[in-house]
Predict the 3D structure of the following.
Amino acid sequence: MKKGLSFCLIISLLIVLSGCAPAYRKNTRASQSYIEPSLLRKFPDIPVPSGFKPEAESSYAFMNSAIRVGLLKYAGKGEVDSVINFYKEQMPLYNWGLLNIIEYGISVLSFEKDAEVCSVNIEQAGRRCRIAIAVNPKSSQSIKTRAGGDDKEEPPKIQKTQKSP
């Protein structure tokens, strides 16, 4: 009798526990679609998805008090759509404004902030995703145009030199 009661109790417990398992897995999958920003990054106002590693051999960056320029490359596990959504959500938190998105093979997101532009190129490479982030100053003409100045600089004139006989 005790064996029968123990057996029923164990079966009941297994049924209850197995009924909870699919709900747990479902929540786990939903939480994996959100990408957290990494704390390790070269430029503090340009986020990088957590788990993406820098490709130092093909990256460069230059900064001083007046300018910063860089091409930073990263690779990690992820889907292109998730990474695109990451940058669409995260860049405005750092005061970057979205200019445009081009999607054809490689997805390109362009942002602007003050006197700089940032281009984020995202492409799928098998199971991995590659990101290339280019940061550079805006051209002086576009800065004047956005500031409302109508000082138009003329392009430099090219002088032809005559060949001597």
Q: What stands out?
A: The first helix runs from residue 2 to 32. Confidence is low (pLDDT under 50) at residues 5-32.
